[in-house]
Amino acid sequence: MHGILAVYLREALILKRRLKRQLAGMAVSPLLYLIAFGYAMGDSVQFGGHTYLEFLIPGLVAMSSMTQSFGISTDINVARFYWYIFEEFQAAPVSNFAYVTGEVLAGMTRALLSIGVILVLGLPFGVVLHYGPLFWLAAILNSFVFASLAVALAMLVKSHADQSLLTSFVITPMAFLGGTFFPVERLPVWAQKILFLLPLTHASNAIRAVALGEMPDWRAYLVLPLTGVAFFILALGSVNHARD
Amino acid sequence: MCMPSGPGARVRGKPMIRIDQLIKTYGSVKALDGVDLHVPAGQLFAYLGPNGAGKTTTIRILTGLTKLGGGRASLNGHDIEKDALAAKRQCGLVPQYINLDSELTVYENLDIHGRLFDMKPAVREAGINEMLTYVELRDRSDSLVKQLSGGMKRRVMVARALMHSPRILFLDEPTVGLDANIRRRIWALIKKIQQDGTTIFLTTHYIEEAEFLADRVAFLDNGRIVAVDAPLKLMAGLGKWAIDWLTDNGMQTSYFPSREAARESAAVRENGFTLRRVNLEDAFLSLTGKKVH
Ligand SMILES: Nc1ncnc2c1ncn2[C@@H]1O[C@H](COP(=O)(O)OP(=O)(O)OP(=O)(O)O)[C@@H](O)[C@H]1O
Ligand SMILES: [Mg+2]
Predict the structure, then answer these.
(1) Are the C-beta atoms of A89 and B116 separated by less than 8 Å?
(2) Which of B69, B91, B114, B146 is the most buried (most CB within 10 A)?
(3) What ipTM does the predicted assembly reach?
(4) Pocket of ligand 1 (CB under 6 A)
(5) What is the pLDDT of residues A8-21, one digit of tens each?
(6) B15-230: which CATH architecture?
(7) What is the pairing mode between strands B168-172 and B199-203?
(8) With an 8 Å Cβ cutoff, is B142 touching chain A?
(9) What pTM did the predictor assign?
């Protein structure tokens, strides 16, 4: 328990120190998407009776919670390969479980902050959505999935460059295809089947459904925790791998 | 049971650091090739060897940063593999490279460390203040680490390694890159830590550092221990004085039992020479044919 808190607190202090920069960073790309796709396209595009902005904001929530929670992998790597701070955790009497949990919670904190940023950014556009418990549950589960994946990959990579490569090949495609910018149903069936395997697709569908006042697909609430737990277990197993 | 005592008796009780047949390979490089060492409680043990000898690798394995490739080791009776968390609780570590959180303050760095070692809040706070006083950095407690000089950072690392009162302190080149003044202050600090009962395992390239501080010295070369003994014993047999002079084949050294004998011999040489006391470097050189640095 003390280990979880210590690891989390370290990340929280760093986050606090960089808060202004972090918040600005969290705001830039959603703001651009909102302006470019949402505002500029205006009412010309509609999905299922909703304006594109109403469609887009929940998608951005899913996307940002993914990219921000996954973003801790970069920080873990910088701490590991450039500052050797990871060694301070390794040399301490702290279990792998405590280390991974602390880092995952730190990733989830960042994700929640970024969701807050998007909801605030959405305000001036006058979009009113429903942010009930199922909305937050899906968002939190999505952050859990990607924070766990981030820790696992951060332990497995051999260099910082590998890490950037993973982000370009895994996270960026998912961000664009996982139901953020357009409904997955518009794609051919075979593509839908593939995208249905991605956790982000489930997250954005569920988050969007709740936000638009519809019933979410219950399968999302099964797929996300299961994927999250699988990644978490992978992360636990890969901590020892990081010792050379 | 009655234990034998007196000269020649084996080390009694269990050693604080026990290393048996430690092996580590990186690809085709044998970083450690069967290292055996026992360090009794309270000893200040220096581990010497040239670059790449395997000093850091040994410390990293003992402190849980690197997997061991073979053999076994225990710290205060706790096996480093089977009983890893208990073994880690015995250690304080000052690594070769600075690994402080430069974006956090000195206090925050130490506070996180105290939490990692499960120190209760009041103990933690008292420990931080005591250690910062110890390394004479009490007034820099709220400075960001990136604003400190290299020597100050090393002292913060010493404070951090000691604040949870470890039984064993590992120091991997603690004074590298520090000026002579600060180095001496750190030496005094290390002596004081030992007097408080801590077992110390130190690596260094500064021969005088090992001579001044160590109760016992191990010479490591190519992942093997070539000698272990008290510094004076390692140097005995070579003589007390040495002269170095340059030849076409590089530096040559001769050893003499007395200063006068060395002088006499030097007088016949035309080129420049240096007359000096025999040191641990000479002992290492005579055993391996190599220099420590
Ligand atoms: N992570 C690693 N990957 C591959 N080889 C390594 C690694 N770490 C150390 N080595 C190799 O192991 C050997 C021992 O290295 P080590 O760092 O223990 O030496 P050292 O005695 O501490 O040297 P120095 O005085 O330069 O600090 C060297 O040959 C080094 O190249
Ligand atoms: Mg070294």
Answers:
(1) yes
(2) B91
(3) 0.91
(4) A 244; B 26, 29, 31, 49, 51-57, 96
(5) 999 999 999 999 99
(6) 3-Layer(aba) Sandwich (3.40)
(7) parallel
(8) no
(9) 0.91
